Amino acid sequence: MSADTARRTERFAKAGSPDGGRDGAIAEDPALAGLRVSGSLPDGEAEIELRGVSKRFSARKRETLALTDIDLGIRKQEFVTLLGQSGCGKTTMLRILAGLTQPSTGEVTIGGRPLWNGDHRDDEALRKLGLVFQDANLFPWYTVEENIALPLLLRKVDKTERRRRSHELGELVGLQGFEKALPRELSGGMRQRVAIARALSYNPEILLMDEPFGALDAITRDKMNLELQRIAEATKATVVFVTHAIAEAVFLADRVVLLSARPGRIRSITHVDAPRPRSLEVTAEPGFQEKVLELRRQLTEDEERVGREGGVSE
Ligand SMILES: Nc1ncnc2c1ncn2[C@@H]1O[C@H](COP(=O)(O)OP(=O)(O)OP(=O)(O)O)[C@@H](O)[C@H]1O
Ligand SMILES: [Mg+2]
Fold first, then answer.
1. Ligand 1 close to Cβ of residue 87 (< 6 A)
2. Smallest Cα–Cα separation from 45: which of 21, 68, 72?
3. Contact call for residues 263 and 66 (beta carbons, < 8 A)
4. Residue of 91 and 172 predicted with greater confidence
5. Is there an atom of ligand 1 within 6 Å of 58 CB?
């Protein structure tokens, strides 16, 4: 890399960081597309931190560099959305944060503690995490109440306390009256609410969500986004939320991290400073629409590039 390119990269990386960038601006420079955008925070500010993270998969003679050069800090109580086209590494990144996948290089810290020590995972750091996936994954033979309280049962919490907590969470996610229902008696949106309540049952400080509303119709999805915003506020959780819906990513986020594909790296970081609680009317505001359009432009450009180059899968 020439000295000039290095300087420009550094400048670009700074613009991409939350404190170097203009507030509300999209840190992106087309001339430098493909170069590294850093989402690092100043020392001590991050609750969750990925430093120099990459992930390479080897499967049946095929090597895939799913993620590379990922530097990202996430503050306590921040709401970060990960946006990007299919296959760009969003789930991989979330699984790395959840301790389900070990990165090939780099370090993950949660609350200042490294998540991995060699091949050994730090279970204390994991206790801070709650996970929600695209499929609600409920146990069909358990009632709503029992599904919500399952993590507490596994933690040997007594029955009275499990009941109390599951009732409280049922109300928080708007499921009152359905405590005794079985999953098959619920709509898709209601099942996702149970999954969210279950993830919240042991008070996780960090909620990791992988396209939790992907299977829902547009109106239910809007409602769930409003609910999630309220729940995040009420529980003071830090949230990392994966989606490929641009408007959803902007609506929910304090920062949108756009990943580009093959190899998956941070392409831009967009600050969304609209005050909270946000109502759906926010989506009609020009500032909101500008961000959506710009992110769509970047996504389309990325898709065209991958289509042209076939991407770098090695
Ligand atoms: N266990 C695995 N073994 C081999 N390759 C994998 C594995 N998991 C993911 N990959 C590859 O890593 C890349 C990123 O996958 P990932 O699931 O993270 O994408 P994604 O952004 O979540 O996509 P989608 O929006 O479709 O869910 C893909 O090329 C995928 O084929
Ligand atoms: Mg995925």
1. yes
2. 72
3. yes
4. 91
5. no
Whether 68 maps to a domain, the answer reads: yes
Q: Residues 25-30: what's their mean pLDDT? A: 44
* Segments forming the whole domain that contains residue 235: 3-128+204-309
Kindly state if the Cβ of 244 falls inside 6 Å of ligand 1.
yes
Which residues is 242 bridged to in the sheet?
A: 82, 210
Choose which residue among 67, 90, 97, 240 to substitute to test ligand 1 binding: the one with the highest number of ligand atoms within 8 A of its C-beta: 90
Which ligand 1 atom minimizes the distance to the CA of 58? 4
- How many domains does the chain divide into? 1
Residue 243 has pLDDT above 80, yes or no: yes
Q: What is the pTM of this model?
A: 0.86
Closest residue by Cα to atom 4, ligand 1, is 57
CATH number for position 10: 3.40.50.300
**Is 130 or 36 the better-scoring residue by pLDDT?**
130
Dihedral angle, C-alpha 67, 209, 95, 70, nearest 10 °: 30
For ion ligand 2, residues whose CB falls within 5 Å: 91
DSSP state of 39: B
Which of 206, 215, 49 lies closest to 133, judged by CA?
215
Q: How far is the CA of 290 from the centre of ligand 2 (A)?
A: 26
Structure token pair of residue 94? 């979330």
H helical segments located in the chain:
3-16, 90-97, 123-126, 144-154, 159-172, 188-200, 218-235, 246-252, 286-309
Q: Is residue 97 part of a domain?
A: yes
Per the CB < 8 A criterion, the answer to whether 254 and 271 are in contact is yes
pLDDT tens across 7-18, in order? Answer: 443 433 333 333
